[in-house]
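Input record (one chain):
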Amino acid sequence: MLLPASRICKQLNATGEGHDPNSSLNASWTWPPFALFDVVDVPHKTINLIWQRAKNGSTVDLWWFYLAVSDYAPAPKRIPDKTPEQGTEEPIDASFKSPFIGQNEFDVARWLKGKPNGVNLDSHFFGLLDKQAEKSGKVVLCRIGDSHLKGNEVKCLLWDADTATLWLGGQNYGDWDDQMDGKGPYIPEFH
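The corresponding structure, as predicted from the sequence alone:
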């Protein structure tokens, strides 16, 4: 069943910051859209397939991933009292070349933490396209910070593209640590 975007967005923290698990304004622990970084030069055909699967699995039929580029200008913007902007729509332009090739989860976390105010990307959760994206169409989901989203540690989990945005967008406080306990951490494959 697809949920209307307005219903999902009403559950989200109105400012997109703060991630207060005790706040009644933030039934979800995350704030879509989420930055997604291609760090291994995944073929465009594969990125488009992952994109479509992620959109279809979102339950709100929205593009929750934003394919990050070095400049923050094209990133979704936060507009008070408006439904969050979507991420990058498919198809990915054939001329796209990721500026993050060869970087790791810590490098791209620094890019995300350096985003200007007004850029509407979750500050603590993001995705990576590593070698698993090429092999199996899976997405690496990463969290910056501990279970209270404090600090700069980065932990990753591997998810199927069709459930990645669904899980990430509907995540609540403690869900990440429960998954980490069950699945164990994933170490991204860069080579």
